[in-house]
Amino acid sequence: MKIFQYGYKEEPFDEEGSTIFRPRADIILRYNNKQKQVGAIVDSGSDISIIPKDLAEYLGLPLLLQTKRAIGGVSGETHAFQSCLNIVFISNNADDVLLIRDIPVIIVENFPDIVLGRKGVFDLFTITFEEAKRTITLQTN
Predict the structure, then answer these.
(1) Contacts of 118 (CB under 8 A, 6+ apart)
(2) Which of 1, 22, 29, 122 lies 20 to 30 Å from 39 when distance is taken between CA atoms?
(3) Least-confidence region, from 5-9, 31-35, 92-96
């Protein structure tokens, strides 16, 4: 069993200078020989993981026309590509890493963030959000 615990990250919320704390996991996105370390929002309300198109292009993910589909969310509907990549969860302890292969992702143009959704991720962990402590814990099942 592996346990990954992350503190919420304080981030800008609006133009008036308000901030919000978001549950982010430290991960490495990998595809073929390219990788990028990022902080991804862990979102139990998202069905699938989402990455911006420019990051997908950097990693070399295939953006085939037949994988393009319409998706909906809080901000309405947009068109996106579907693909898969590998995700490495990392922690403060260098020995604690976990590679998850072939996670389905949606690739959206002009999307401002990286989101870890339920499909392919949440079924591998018991996930605890502790709002009062501003921490999130992912424990392998």
Answers:
(1) 44, 46, 47, 48
(2) 1
(3) 92-96
pTM listed for this prediction: 0.85
Dihedral (Cα; 68, 72, 75, 78), 10-degree rounding: 20
Q: Which amino acid is at 21?
A: F
Instruction: Name the 3-class secondary structure at 122.
Output: helix
Is the predicted pLDDT of residue 141 greater than 70, yes or no? yes
pLDDT at 109: 82
What top-level class would CATH report for the domain 24-123? Answer: mainly beta
Angle, CA of 27, 29 and 32, to the nearest 5°? 150
Would you say 9 and 22 are in contact if contact means Cβ atoms under 8 Å apart? yes
49-52 vs 97-108, strand pairing mode: parallel
